[in-house]
Structure formats: structure tokens, C-alpha cells
Amino acid sequence: MRAHPAGPRHGDVSTSPAIPIAPIDAVQLGELAAEVWPITAQRSLKGVMHVGGVDVRDLAAEYQTPLFVWDLDYFRSRLAAFATAFADAGPGPTVFYAAKAFLAGLAVREVSAAGLGIDVCTGGELTLALRAGADPANLMFHGNNKSASELTQALDAGVGRFVIDSFEELVRLAALAEDRGVKARVLIRVTVGVEAHTHEFIATAHEDQKFGFSLAGGAAAEAVRRVLGLDSLELVGLHSHIGSQIFDADGFEVAAHRVVELLADVRDEHGVELAELDLGGGMGIAYVSDDDPLQIEDLAGRLRVIVERETASRGLTVPRILVEPGRAIVGPTMVTLYEVGTVKPIDLGGGHSRTYISVDGGMSDNIRTALYDADYTVTLASRAPTVPATLARVVGKHCESGDIVVRDAWLPADVVPSDLLAVAATGAYCRAMASTYNLVPRPAVVAVSAGTTRLVLRRESVDDLLALDVELFPGPDAS
Amino acid sequence: MRAHPAGPRHGDVSTSPAIPIAPIDAVQLGELAAEVWPITAQRSLKGVMHVGGVDVRDLAAEYQTPLFVWDLDYFRSRLAAFATAFADAGPGPTVFYAAKAFLAGLAVREVSAAGLGIDVCTGGELTLALRAGADPANLMFHGNNKSASELTQALDAGVGRFVIDSFEELVRLAALAEDRGVKARVLIRVTVGVEAHTHEFIATAHEDQKFGFSLAGGAAAEAVRRVLGLDSLELVGLHSHIGSQIFDADGFEVAAHRVVELLADVRDEHGVELAELDLGGGMGIAYVSDDDPLQIEDLAGRLRVIVERETASRGLTVPRILVEPGRAIVGPTMVTLYEVGTVKPIDLGGGHSRTYISVDGGMSDNIRTALYDADYTVTLASRAPTVPATLARVVGKHCESGDIVVRDAWLPADVVPSDLLAVAATGAYCRAMASTYNLVPRPAVVAVSAGTTRLVLRRESVDDLLALDVELFPGPDAS
Predict the structure, then answer these.
(1) Which residue in chain B has the smallest CA separation from A439?
(2) pLDDT averaged over chain A?
(3) B394-417, pLDDT tens digit by residue?
(4) CATH classification of A72-330 is 3.20.20.10, yes or no?
(5) Torsional sign, CA A391, A397, A403, A404
(6) What is the mean pLDDT of chain B?
(7) For residue A84, what pLDDT is reported?
(8) More reliable by pLDDT, B147 or A90
(9) Hey, is B21 helix, strand or coil?
């Protein structure tokens, strides 16, 4: 279902719904596919789901629901896998965790401890990274519209890399750096005309989007020229980002071919070989068990082969390959726990029915289903499935028909209020994009590891929700 | 452009973009169409936009951007227009402001002062309404998954109407009311098989959505039976809600026909004539000047004629008609002010180009463009347009290509950084659905009236943004 342009919209009105898969038995219903669930997610002998060795019923009792449960060991292992897969002989990190996917103080510390850098794109993300102790030299500052005050903050902090996105920013950053007597290290974001998602990519000459400098139009080459002509900027490399939720390396191959051509042109025109080639993020993860993204080490190997071949063919020294995974690191490491509130079988006509299962969160804690038609995997978590499945739709508690968490799911036919459901792979772009729509408090994030818990983000209180309301809390800010 | 299921997606990749309208001259560019702009929005002799008699440059300087500017007089006049249009001889309000569109303490006070009730759908909305002094008797409690604690809170507060949405809730509410020795006044939400948007409606027997009791399937009649059999519930009426952003009365006509049939069945089976018929919300507004929603008084007149005819034909006393406008009241009364940060002309090939204008907010303060493909009207606000237009796309500062505020707009070709843009009709579902994605602070809301300003919601600070982070702010909540 697609949300209506004009606003909230009902679920599909259809008397012959497409049935996604055949009904399955209770044993299959209880299985936790390794592709989508955190590495420590398992069922106890009695069938209760545990994550990080902790019973989900205990988590719900202590931290309330909805709740993001973060498998900290799995997060660490994915950090380590990326660090190893993309390791090279150069100084400093090659992997920059994309903060936009999920950021918290603990994430900053774990990422830093694993030796990765962090990609931030606003003053808010930069502030959090710095307060949590990130090394500014290992920060990369992204964004199509960094303000003068954000650039100033980043320069003063000593941020290690700026990804320049426009001529205006180039001039702005150069002037601010010059004022401070510093040299800002920059990469130029190049739009190479490749857009990739999952198993497809589109390659064109022109790219109709807000980011970067066009390769085909010559803006990228001109940006290189201008940066090289400014004393307050040091050009360390080129940057290309081609899409999101990418499952194979084909799109990267075309992008690398094009951007390496620019590296060669820069060498030919300016006699400079740039040291870094940032291939951006967009590495995909499995939301449902049919998803088959490349494994981290396979992707790293493919990218290395591609870049080596492309640079060798042009007689260039192989640059350092940088990447910016966010979803690919944190996405699979969280699950969302919800409590069921109502269960409503709906007759769709023609012998079909659908069971609407309402949970205590929804589009405020996961907008991706409504925003991107995203698919998720859901399971009954607080007990073992013991009966066969019914076709269910897991919906939220918001006053909007498009408030859907999982569009099509097979869940045990005996799900009742107070059961706990778990949704897999909610680590990226769920808590990060959370709203307080309908004044629903944003859920807590709790890390679990080896049977212990650690609160990362506390649950929002009603007082938190109302704190900005000057009518209720007139303070020094009120006018 | 549609966001990709898998995640963020670039803008349309196209070398032959559809051009929305013909280029227009500078004079036309400066016009503020009465259909979409607040009633007090006008340009000074020098061409600077004022709202409520206040210069937008002064607003930006004092409250920063992005900023929601709320025309308080216009809000009051729309409240009064609804109250008058739907007035009847009965006691208490017939118009219930839908809090989900936009809620703040000042909104509660203004709505209450105008004699309207408020439709809330969570404990958070209920708490805010009560703290700001709303009369609980004039509150209507909506929602498909009200928790036991929310129902308890509402019963204890003396909320005047509960819209029952499921059999589970019916039992839950009855038991809680019985425990307290009170009688809860309830309406039953009926799904009548009508889904309406703008100038279209679909009528079916079955409705594939989470809300309400099916009329066709008999669940609605069964809910009536059960409520009438319970001492702790008082059935005051039926409720039907058919869609959103509805421009005419055709869908309401079919819905009224069907739900009045149920009123007649209830009379025939139980000898009871229900006093209230709630036709829900969904009344549309103009986002662009081509939009032509029915005027408030016309809509009220049409609904009254429809309900009178339908009830007369069945020999029923005409019930009180209740409505729940949210967007239709608050939507047109706000504009969002943004400051331009970058301006980037993009060659699309084939002689076409598009100017990407980046502003200092985006999908965090207005998700509707990405979520619903919503259209908006935008104008240069801080000065008069003096040159002809260029085809522009107004985009935000978030690290996501789908972060678009206004997809297609004609804006003066000389827009530069530090210009202020104003986007019309952002009162509903913008601040209410705001996120802190990329740790971008949520904007302030400032009311303007007769040359004065009054802060309603203060701008979020970085400390507000990080307040839930236990790693940075370990407090008594941390474990």
C-alpha cells in the first residue's frame, strides 16, 4: 500500500489480497532465521525469545514497550568485521560509521573503540560525537547544506575530513578555514550518474538530485580546480555515493570506473594523485529471509578488485578505499519489542480474511514501512508458537490507517493482547527517524550482552514530550 | 518521485522532466494566493512578507529558522467558522478539533475558548489537553489501541466520549468503568466501506483497515448489542470516518446513507434512537492554488441536508452531527520559514535544468512530501521577486536524497543563500510529525497577531536533543 498524496490513507481496499506465502506450521513459525535476527537471538526451551541472554519478558517488564533491544556483541562483531575487511596499511580509519542510521553516546564509544571513524552530517551529530569522546580527526563531515556555524564548529573541533557538496560550501569553508589559519582536509562529492538499490542499478549521464558535483557536466573537475587553488583547503580525495540497500557490487563497479577516470584526469591536469577514494555507504542488509546482500568481506574484496583494476588500467597508484556503512553495521543488531493491544480479524470477502494485530507503537518508532514500503520480519516473542499461522498485519496505535509496522506476516492464530512481538533488523533509521506523533513517547534503547542489560537511550516521559510547550512550561526562553 | 522500498532514493533520474507550469513573471511570483496563504499574509511596499503584521525577517532573527509562523487570528476565525457552521441546539460542542494535526497548550486554550471539543487519541494528547485546561467533558477519546492505563486515565479524568474501536476495548472499558462505578459515554466506530480523498471516493462492502467495526460484516451491529447490554457503558452514537483531504461531500453522502441505515436497524432491534452521529474528519484544504475544497459553511450545509434526508426517509429523529476537523482548522494557519543555504543548478540533459535550493530544515519538520507525495506552495519571503522564475526544487539538509520539501516550484532565478523562503499551509501534520532525524532540532512555533509575537513551542536545543542519552547524561533513570 502506498500512502495517499493527500494524507493518511486506509489499507488496501481489496477483496482478493495477494497472499505472500503459504501458511506454515507452528515449528516453522518459531524459527529465528539467522539472516535477519541478531546473532544472540534464540528461544529458550520453553520457546521464549532471548536476546543477549536476556528474556524479552524481563526486558518489557523493566523498560516498558515499545523497546529497542540492541545486541551489543553483534554490533561489536559487525564493527570488527568491517574494520578487518576494509583494513589497509594507511593511517587512520577507512570505515566511517554513518551516524544518521543510529547515534547515541554508547554507539560513538563502541565505534571509536573498534577503530572506525564516524560520518556526521549536522551540528547535532557532530556535537554528540564530540561529547561522547570521538577523535575529531576521525570524523567526516557530510551534508548538502552545512551552515556557516556548523562548519565553524567542525573547524574549531579539528574535524578530519569535510565532504564538499557545492561551490557555495567550498567558498564558505575556505574562508572560514583561512580566518582560523587552518587547512581543512576535504573530499569532493562527485555524482557519477549511478543509482543503485538491491539488485538493480541505473547508469545515466545526468543525475537529478541535490547532492554533489556532476561528473558529466564538469562541475566535479571544476571543484577540484578551485580546491587545489586555495591555500586553506587540502584535497585528500573524491567521494561517490550511489544508493542504499545495495545487495551486490555491480553499481559500485560502474561508479568506480567513472570516478577513477576523474582521478586520472586530475593527475593529468594537475599532476596530483589523490590519496583517498570514498565509495560511500548503501551496503544492504536482510530485512526478510529472502534478502541476500553480499557478506561484508565479499563486498570488501569485490570493491578492492574493482578499484585496483580501474586504477591499474590508468597507471594510478591505488588510493585508500573508504566506506561509510551505517545500516549495514547497526541495522541487524536491534529488534523492536511491542506488546499486542488488540487483535481484529477482518473479513475481506471472497473467503479471505486478515487479522489486524495492533501494537503499542507504530509509525512514530518505525516510519520506514509507510515511507519506503519497507518489509520486516516479525515473530511471537514471549512464548512459543503452538498453533498454525494466520495472515496478519501488524499495525500501530496511531490515528492513521497507513500506520503499519509489518504489512504481511504469518503469525500464530492465537496471538492475544499482552503477547510480545519482536520485529527484526530495526537498528537503522527507526529510532533515528522516530517522531512523537500523537504525543507517543519515543521508546528506550537498551543494550543486552551476556545476560546483562544497559540502558542506552531512556524512554521519553510525558514531561519530556511537553517540555518545549511555553504555555505549559513558561521559562526564560519564553517571550 | 516515490521513496524506494529499500531506503532513501535519489531524485528522479530523468533527462526529460515534466515541467509543471509555464514560467511566470516577477509580479506573479510575488503574489500570495488567498486560497493557500494565511489571511494576514501580505507583502510590504518593499515586497517583504509579513504574517500577523510581523516582518518575516524579524521573526527569523528572533526565533531562528526553520520556524513555524502561526497566524493566530486566522486560527481563531477558522475555529469560529466551524463552530458556527456546525452549531445546533444541543448541549456541548459538535466540533471536535483533531489534536493529532497540531497540539500545544495554546491550541488547547484557543480551541476551548471557541467552544469546540478536542479529539485526542493517546495518553500524551489527553495529558496535554487536561494540563492546558480543557474541559474533560468536551474531550473525545479515539484510537484503535487504547491501553488499559490510557482508558483508566481518561475515565478518572471524566472524558466525555470514548470512540470504541474493537470488542477487546469494549470489554476493557466496560470493566474499568464498572470498577470505578462510572458510566462511560461511548460512540461505536463503524467502517462503512467508503474511502474518500479529494474528488474521489471508493465504496465497497469490505474495508481492509485497522479501525472500527465492519457494518457489512455485522460487527457494528454486534458491538451495539453488547454495549447496550452493559450497565457501565452508555451508547450515545455512531461514528464514521471516511478519509482525508476530502474536497466534496459525495463520499460523506454514501457513508451517511449506510450509517443511518444502522441507526434505523438499532431503533428497530432495540427501540433506541441514538442521539449523535459523528461523521469524523477528513475535510480538505488547499495546498496549491488549484485545490478547491468545499468552504466550511457549504460543507456543513451539505452534510446537514444529507443526514436530514437520510434520517427522514427512515422516520428517525435527526441526530446531532459531530465532526472532527484538524487539518481543516489548523492547516492553512501556519507557514514554515526557511533560510536558503545553497543554490545548485543541475543540468538534466536535453536542454532542461533544475535548480536545487537547499534550506535549513527538511523531512524532519515536514515529512509529508516524502511520505504522501504532498504538494506545497513556496514563495520568496524576505524580499520582492524582481526577476523571472526558474524551475526549482526546494530540498532539506538531511543526508537523504528523498529529503524534498517542495518538489516543483517556480522561484525567482536570483534566489541566493540567506534568502528566506516561506512554505504555505504547514499547520497540520508537520510539527506534529516532526522528528529529530540527523539530530536536527525541531523548530519553534511562534504565534503572530496584530504585530505581536508569542512563542508557543520553543525551538529544541542540542541539550534537549541529547537529554535521553544515558551515556552522556546518566541520571536516576539510568540502570
Answers:
(1) B124
(2) 93
(3) 999 999 999 999 999 999 999 999
(4) yes
(5) negative
(6) 93
(7) 97
(8) B147
(9) coil
The dihedral through the CA atoms of A214, A220, A222, A227 has a sign that is positive
With beta carbons less than 8 A apart as the criterion, state whether B75 and A413 touch.
no
User: According to the model, what pLDDT value does residue B404 have?
Assistant: 97
- In the predicted model, what is the mean pLDDT of residues A146-155? 98
A104 and B458 in contact by Cβ < 8 A?
Answer: no
CB contact under 8 Å between B439 and A105, yes or no, is no
CA–CA separation, B471 and B466 (whole Å): 10
What is the C-alpha separation between B216 and B266, in angstroms, rounded?
14
Alpha carbons A411 and A340: distance in angstroms, whole number? 12
B205 CB-near residues (< 8 Å, 6+ apart): A15, A349, B193, B216
Give the model's confidence band at A280: pLDDT under 50 very low, under 70 low, under 90 confident, else very high: very high
- CATH topology match: B26-71+332-460 vs B72-331: no
- In the three-class reduction of DSSP (H, G, I as helix; E, B as strand; rest coil), residue A140 is classed as strand
Q: pLDDT-derived band of residue A140, with 50, 70 and 90 as boundaries?
A: very high
Does B442 contact chain A (CB < 8 Å)?
yes
d(CA A244, CA A325): 10
> What confidence tens digit (pLDDT) does each residue in B108-151 have?
999 999 999 999 999 999 999 999 999 999 999 999 999 999 99
B166·A344 Cβ contact <8 A: yes
B210/A429 Cβ within 8 A: no
Amino acid identity of residue A42, one-letter, is Q
B361–chain A Cβ distance below 8 A for any pair: no
The confidence band for A476, taking pLDDT boundaries of 50, 70 and 90, is low
A9 and B398: CB-CB below 8 Å?
A: no
Site of grid cell 422516520: B315
Note the pLDDT tens digit of each residue in B286-323: 999 999 999 999 999 999 999 999 999 999 999 999 99
DSSP B142: -
Pick the CATH number of A26-71+332-456 from 2.60.40.10, 3.30.470.10, 3.40.50.2300, 2.40.37.10: 2.40.37.10
Select from B33, B402, B399 the least CA-distant residue to A150: B399
Give the Cα separation of A376 and A424 in Å (integer): 7
The amino acid present at B274, given as its one-letter code, is: L
> What residue of A is the nearest CA neighbor of B364?
A433
Joined grid coordinates for residue B401: 536524497
- CA gap B404, B368 in Å, rounded: 9
User: What digits encode the pLDDT tens for the residues B330-371?
Assistant: 999 999 999 999 999 999 888 889 999 999 999 999 999 999
The CA distances from residue A401 to A285, A459, B111, B245, in Å, are: 28, 25, 25, 14
- What is the identity of the amino acid at A26? A
CA distance B109 to B369: 30
To the question of domain B26-71+332-460 being in CATH 2.40.37.10, the answer is yes
Domains of chain B, by residue range, sit at 26-71+332-460, 72-331
What is d(CA A356, CA B213) in angstroms, rounded to the nearest whole number? 12
Instruction: Tell me the three-class secondary structure of A164-182, residue by residue.
Output: ECCHHHHHHHHHHHHHHCC
Q: Grid coordinates in use for A65?
A: 514497550
Q: Which residues of B touch A442 (CB under 8 A)?
A: 468
In contact, B415 and B343? CB cutoff 8 Å? yes
pTM above 0.90, yes or no: yes
Query: What chain B residue is nearest to A430 in terms of C-alpha separation?
Result: B437
Torsion of the alpha carbons at B283, B289, B295 and B298, rounded to the nearest 10: -100
Cβ neighbourhood burial of B315 (10 Å; 0-12, 13-18, 19+): exposed
Of B208, B356, B371, the CB nearest to A14: B208
Q: Is the ipTM of this complex over 0.90?
A: yes
| Residue B4: predicted pLDDT | 44
Q: Determine the CATH number of domain B72-331.
A: 3.20.20.10
CB of A296 within 8 A of CB of A306?
no
